[in-house]
Specification:
The chain is α/β, with parallel strands linked by helices. The protein has helices at residues 12-24, 36-39, 59-73, 120-123, 127-130, 150-181, 184-207, 219-222, 227-235, 240-259; strands at residues 28-34, 48-54, 78-81, 90-96, 110-117, 124-125, 134-137, 144-145. The strands form 2 sheets. A 6-stranded mixed beta sheet has the order 3-4-5-2-1-7. A hairpin with an 8-residue loop joins strand 3 (78-81) and strand 4. The chain starts with 11 loop residues before the first helix and ends with a helix.
Length: 261
């Protein structure tokens, strides 16, 4: 857990800086990189996912010091701090190092800085779900690879299939009613919420069970070739009714297959 599996040279200055912060701030016990850099799909527009683990009870203070130091040592154009209530044991912020984060004509430089209290739920990483972390600072060897409780995940998957089957008739009614009424915005929202989202959950249970709850992201890496494009075809184009019908028909296939296991 010491070498990145992708070219992170775009963030070399930050990686060096993070090592220095870990060595000088005694509250910062662990720093590692997660996200696309270690799970796949990393490209010129990927951010750097920074996970910091601090001495229990000191995460917020460590986060504040890291944020203040980053604003001092780098040219940061904009900061989005998530509300304090987002995490019970830490804080998170996105730091935009480019003036226009939405400009895709040049490589993106955005830091996702998340600092939590040191705890098993943060230091134990299921590489099936989150990849093998790129460890920047961990002198005590606290980061470990360990699979999440498989029995608990299986219960969640079974419950998701059962809910999909039970919800199926009502879900189609909600979508079709909105279409019939000409409520375009509501129809699209229900199509995604009750049609596509549950469909993707079922696809994940079948093809990427460890990441069954990852939603609409990472479909190109988590599902078989062509599946992401097939899902995309349900989201766009003419004829919402035809797309909704195809979505529920696909749900039916998956519910039948998964319920018979």
């Amino acid at each position: 857990m010491t070498d990145p599996r992708t070219d992170l040279s775009r963030y070399d200055d930050w990686l060096t800086w993070l090592r220095e912060q870990g060595e000088t701030d005694r509250s910062v016990r662990v720093v590692f990189i997660g996200g696309a850099a270690v799970t796949g799909g990393y490209d010129d527009h990927s951010n750097l996912d920074v996970e910091g683990l601090a001495t229990p009870g000191e995460a917020v203070g460590a986060y504040r010091r890291l944020l203040e130091a980053a604003l001092r040592d780098f040219e940061v154009h904009q900061v989005w701090e998530l509300p304090e209530s987002t995490w019970p044991d830490g804080r998170q912020a996105f730091l935009n190092l480019t003036a226009d984060a939405g400009d895709m004509s040049r490589p993106t430089r955005i830091i996702d800085l998340h600092v939590s209290d040191l705890a098993d739920e943060h230091r134990l990483v299921d590489d099936r779900r989150h990849g093998t972390p790129y460890v920047v600072h961990d002198p005590e060897g606290l980061v470990e690879l360990r699979h999440d409780d498989e029995a608990e995940m299986e219960r969640a998957r079974v419950a998701a299939v059962e809910q999909a089957a039970a919800r199926r008739p009502t879900a189609q009614w909600l979508v079709n009613r909105a279409i019939a009424r000409g409520d375009v915005v509501e129809a699209h929202a229900f199509h995604v919420g009750y049609g596509v989202n549950p469909l993707v959950r079922l696809l994940r249970i079948q093809h990427s069970p460890a990441r069954h709850d990852f939603g609409l992201r990472y479909l190109r890496t988590d599902l078989p070739d062509g599946y992401a494009e097939r899902v995309a075809a349900l989201l766009e184009g003419e004829g919402l009714q035809a797309r909704a019908d195809a979505t529920f028909a696909w749900q039916d296939e998956l519910i039948a297959e998964l319920s018979s296991r």
